[in-house]
Each structure stands twice: as C-alpha cells, then as structure tokens.
Specification:
The chain has 231 residues and is α/β, with parallel strands linked by helices. Helix content is 33%, strand content 27%.
C-alpha cells in the first residue's frame, strides 16, 4: 500500500501541496479530482520524485520513497504515465517498452503480458512512436509503465483528447489491473470515466485533499462534483 502522510510541496517559493493525506490500496483505483490548480498533477510528481516533498512523507510497503532520489523511486515499483505521455518519440514502440523493462530488470514474460493487454502495439513494434496515433501513443505510455511490473500505477489524465473507443480501452485496462493487485491513482476530470473504474474518489482543493468518498456512494449529480470539479 502507498501511504501519503501530511506532505507539503512547492515550486520554489510557491507552495502547492499543503498537508496532503491519501492512501492507494492494493487492487483498488483511487481517482483524484479537482479544478485546475488544485494540486493534482503536483501530487503525482511528488509521489514519483519530480517535485521534492518539503514536509511529511510517502511510504510504499514500509519504504519511505519520498526520501529516495527520483531515479530510484520507479525501482521500488511505482509506474508513472504523465499528462502528455512523454514518450521517446524517435524510438520505436519496442525500444520504448525496453526502457520500461530495464528499469526493474524485467524480461520477456512481462513484455508479452503487456502486449497481450495492448495487442495493437504488438503489430507496431518496429514503428517509430511519434508516428502513432494519439490513442496508440497513450497505449504505449501505459504499456511502458506496466513494463516495470508496478505495485502502484500513477495515471495523469490518460483519456484527455482521445476518441470514445480509446477511452473505453483504457478504462477496461484499468479495471483489469485491479485483479492483478496493482494500486492505481488516477487523475481524471471526466465524471463518467471516474464512476466507471473508481473504488474511491479523493477531491482536492487548494492543495489539500478535502474529502475522500467511496465511489459506490456517488452518482453523476452528487454535490461533490459540483463543489470540487464544476465551474
């Protein structure tokens, strides 16, 4: 389990996260929602070590990952798919996957499992990744993170700008990962997508987690969506 305990984080003098507490449990999807500027992406970057934690700590299975150098955090089993995908655009699909495999010294078994999840990528292993469609690039970004065989998967706006068929594929993949025991933290703005996959929803405002609600108690018209997400 990943436990976030009262963390603060800043960009220079600008404090963004203020005493954030959250848990990501094995085999569950925790969705993080909030308006722009609430601190959602900064939270993800703090977990993966791209933004330093100034106070509090982040613990994964007894290891304080917030005390580690950023390059060591993925080796503990945290996979990250940032907003905008951030692929190695001039490398092939196969080469991008290989980078993910190298991070935790995973081999053909993991690669084959990931390609089974995304069979379209198997057809495009030799293709340069920047020439893929937007949906295929998102598949590759998730597949590369899964090549770590992560304990925790961080997904930042994975459905942004995608057509409905790709959104459905990513939703189904996230559901399938629950059965493998992966703890997923999903930043998402689409209420329908959240209600389709979430076990719990954490609502952020002003750099804090204001409320965590069981997803089964939410519907599209629940007041939390208007309070924390609506404009």
């Amino acid at each position: 389990m990943l436990t976030i305990e009262a963390i603060d984080a800043s960009y220079g003098p600008v404090q963004v996260l203020r005493g954030v507490n959250l848990e990501a449990r094995q085999g569950e999807v925790t969705c993080v929602m909030g308006r722009n500027g609430a601190g959602k992406s900064t939270l993800m970057k703090a977990i993966i070590g791209q933004v330093p934690v100034a106070a509090g700590r982040i613990v994964l299975d007894g290891v304080t990952v917030s005390a580690l150098a950023a390059h060591r955090i993925p080796r503990e089993g945290i996979g990250y798919v940032p907003q905008g995908r951030r692929l190695f655009g001039d490398l092939t699909v196969a080469e991008n996957l290989e980078i993910g495999l190298m991070c935790r010294a995973r081999g053909p078994r993991v690669r084959d499992h990931v390609l089974d999840l995304f069979p379209r990528l198997r057809e495009r292993l030799g293709q340069v990744s920047r020439t893929l469609s937007g949906g295929e690039q998102q598949m590759l970004a998730i597949a590369r993170a899964l090549c770590l065989e992560p304990k925790v998967l961080l997904l930042d706006e994975p459905t942004e700008g995608l057509q409905p068929s790709m959104i459905a594929l990513i939703r189904d993949t996230v559901k399938d990962l629950k059965a493998t025991g992966v703890a997923t933290i999903l930043v998402e703005q689409r209420v329908d997508a959240v209600l389709a996959v979430a076990d719990r929803v954490a609502f952020m405002t002003g750099g804090r987690v204001a409320e965590v609600v069981a997803a089964e108690g939410l519907i599209a018209t629940s007041p939390q969506f208007q309070t924390y997400v609506g404009v």
